[in-house]
């Protein structure tokens, strides 16, 4: 990261996240020393996972109370700022990194800590609670690491659409069901309470026929 130093009129870069503190209006010119003063390894668990990076704002988390777990200084409270995420931007370049590996990929949630420092924590080192959404007693996560790639476009039973020009195309299964329904309308799957029986005619109003 980099910062502008107005006294020098200069930008200085390649700074770790431990070089930054949250600005406080009560200490506008000289920040307070953090207590505890966390080392870099307690502020950030992992290095970057690729050269490309994107900034995400998770709106649901903005007003939640964060508790982060550090390596050596227990848990601290904080407020969510934004999330940094790595990705592999160019498929023509060899991928020697871990951003696209589901078992290794991690996000960096940037948190303003209660001691004045800023940290970058993965999801599995953060707990987020909201007075309206979160129950009083929380479950202990028993999640396993994701190791699978998910793909929705390679299901063979859907067939191929290269020769189809229809906007409202149908899968082979849908075409088969439509033919069966045309041959036997009773096979149409209807929601509960819905019937194909014709409606009974409404009784005539008293004034009709006069």
Question: Can you characterise this structure?
Answer:
This protein has 210 residues and is mainly beta. The protein has two domains: 3-129, no CATH class; 158-187, no CATH class. Helix content is 8%, strand content 20%. It has two helices and eight strands, in the order ββαββββββα. The protein has helices at 40-43, 172-183; strands spanning 3-5, 10-12, 52-56, 65-69, 75-87, 108-113, 118-121, 126-129. The strands form two sheets. Strands 3, 4, 5, 6, 7 and 8 form a six-stranded antiparallel beta sheet that branches. A two-stranded antiparallel sheet has the order 1-2. The protein is elongated and about 80 Å long. The model has no long low-confidence stretch (mean pLDDT 83).
Helical content (DSSP H or I, runs of 4+): under 10%
Order of helices and strands: EEHEEEEEEH
Radius of gyration: 29 Å
- As a percent range, the share of strand residues is 15-25%
The overall pLDDT average reads 83
Give the class from helix and strand content and strand pairing.
mainly beta
Total of domains: 2
Distance from first to last alpha carbon: 87 Å
Multimerization state: single chain
Largest sheet: 6 strands, antiparallel
Uncertain segments = none
Overall 3D shape: elongated
Number of helices: 2
Which terms summarize this structure?
mainly beta; 2 domains; two-stranded antiparallel sheet; 2 helices; 8 strands
Short summary:
The chain has helices at residues 40-43, 172-183, and strands at residues 3-5, 10-12, 52-56, 65-69, 75-87, 108-113, 118-121, 126-129.
């Amino acid at each position: 990261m980099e910062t502008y130093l107005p006294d020098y009129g200069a930008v200085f870069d390649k700074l770790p996240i431990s070089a930054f503190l949250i600005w406080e209006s009560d200490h506008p010119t000289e920040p307070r020393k953090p207590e505890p003063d966390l080392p870099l390894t307690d502020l950030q668990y992992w290095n970057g996972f690729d050269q490309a990076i994107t900034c995400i704002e998770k709106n649901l988390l903005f007003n939640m109370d964060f508790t982060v777990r550090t390596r050596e200084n227990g848990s601290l409270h904080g407020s969510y700022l934004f999330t940094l995420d790595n990705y592999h931007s160019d498929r023509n370049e060899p991928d020697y990194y871990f951003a696209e590996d589901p078992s290794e990929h991690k996000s960096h949630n940037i948190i303003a800590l209660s001691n004045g420092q800023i940290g970058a924590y993965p999801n599995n080192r953060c707990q987020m609670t909201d007075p309206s959404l979160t129950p009083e007693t929380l479950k202990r996560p028993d999640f396993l690491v994701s190791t699978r790639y998910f793909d929705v476009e390679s299901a063979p039973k859907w067939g191929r659409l290269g020769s189809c020009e229809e906007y409202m195309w149908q899968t082979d299964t849908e075409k088969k069901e439509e033919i069966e329904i045309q041959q036997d309308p009773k096979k149409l799957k209807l929601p509960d309470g819905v019937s194909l029986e014709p409606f009974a005619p409404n009784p005539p109003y008293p004034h009709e026929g006069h």
